[in-house]
Amino acid sequence: MNLPSVFRLLALASLVTAPALAQTRRVVVVPAAAAPASANAGAAGAAPAGGSLPTAQPGPTTVAPGPGISREELSPEQKAALKEADRMRAEKARIDAEVALAEAKRTEELAPLNAETAKLAAERALRLAKAAAEAAALEDERAKLERQAALEAARSTARLSERNNKIRELEAEAKQLQLEAANTIARLTNEIARFQKEEEARKVATKAKPKYLKEPLVDGTLYISDRRIAFNGAVTEGLADYVCQRISFYNNQSPEFPIFIVVDNSPGGSVAAGYQIQKAMAASKAPVFVVVKGFAASMTAVIATLAERSYCYPNTVILHHQVSNSARGNMTVLKEQVEFTNRWFERLGTPVAKKMGLTLPEFVKQMYANDSTGDWQAFGEKAKELKWIDHVVERIEETAVLDLLPPAPSVQGSPLPRTAAAEASGVVQKTDEKGRAYFELPALSNPFDAWWIYDPRGQYRVR
Length: 463
What we know:
By secondary structure, the chain is α/β, with parallel strands linked by helices. It folds into three domains: 49 residues, no CATH class; 87 residues; 250 residues, Alpha-Beta Complex (2-enoyl-CoA Hydratase, Chain A, domain 1). Helices cover 53% and strands 16% of the residues. Strands 5, 6, 8, 9, 10, 11 and 12 form a seven-stranded mixed beta sheet that branches. A three-stranded mixed beta sheet has the order 3-4-13, with no helix packed on it. Helix 4 links the parallel strand 5 and strand 6.
């Protein structure tokens, strides 16, 4: 018998025996004809679908307090139902006992399995904890090794970089020493060759001696002594130092006879360096005369014009123009640099204009009136008329020249003669990526300096 059937029988028995169990109540059935219908209704309601317990149904039966009904008063059907109910309760008790026993057995049988499961779970948790601890230790060790490796790599890189820098420094120092040694050897070789050639020249021209004249212009011929300073190429700080030192040297030697600054060709150059030369000329006790043989422009033209006395050939070209500037930066910086460069031009151009009998604006105006580019050039005779040059001569005699051979070529490939002046200027001839030759000007160390140079073909480039 399955459980739903058992539950339905128990429900039916409870309905049948309910009046008998109520000892303190009495049952009055009204009407009597309705009792079978009520009983049938109760029986029908005792077995609902799905095996659920029966529910009370409305009917005409009324239960009132009164004495209980004994078992003997029950009808045979009720006694049979009551007996069946007792049997079913006993069966239920037996089934409950069997279920409890089965549950106990199952629990007893599952206990070892549960214990084994708990043991395995504990062991697994322990292994996981150990594995996690070992993994954490390994991770710490890995991180430590990585940090050590990174630190060692950084140290190695630093040591390698330091060694590479040291190697580069040593290589640069070696190259510098080699260059200095080569220059020294070349200079000494040139000096030896010069002494030898002078000795040979003296043997040929034993009576040749420099002429020291207070008035070097005699009958249209200008006589230049060995108190001579070569002035060629761009005006740079190095060339200014060279010229100023020799002015001081010749002054200490004798302040009586003139010093000659001889310009073959010079496009001008640094404003500050030119101003330094100009002030050294003005402070000299001995008169300093400027002789221009070929070409003088820009800053060099200013030096020649403002000299105590200047000379040139008839076909010598003198060129004046405004100061140029290769300024860089934003608009404010450019404006400031242009204004400062303009002040340089006012300071150096105003004396030139004054010597010509002009104001500086009139001088600038005539520059552009004579040439649309503002490059005002003139041959010797016209330069004399404009008071740029004091004397135009047909002959210049270098009385101190005893060298019969041409000058030695420059080690640096410079077209300038291999002289102290050429070496001091710092101008180097180079070739760009397109194979074009140019002259590299040294950087201006004076932050307020500017280039005043005539360079229409772009031959001079700033380092």
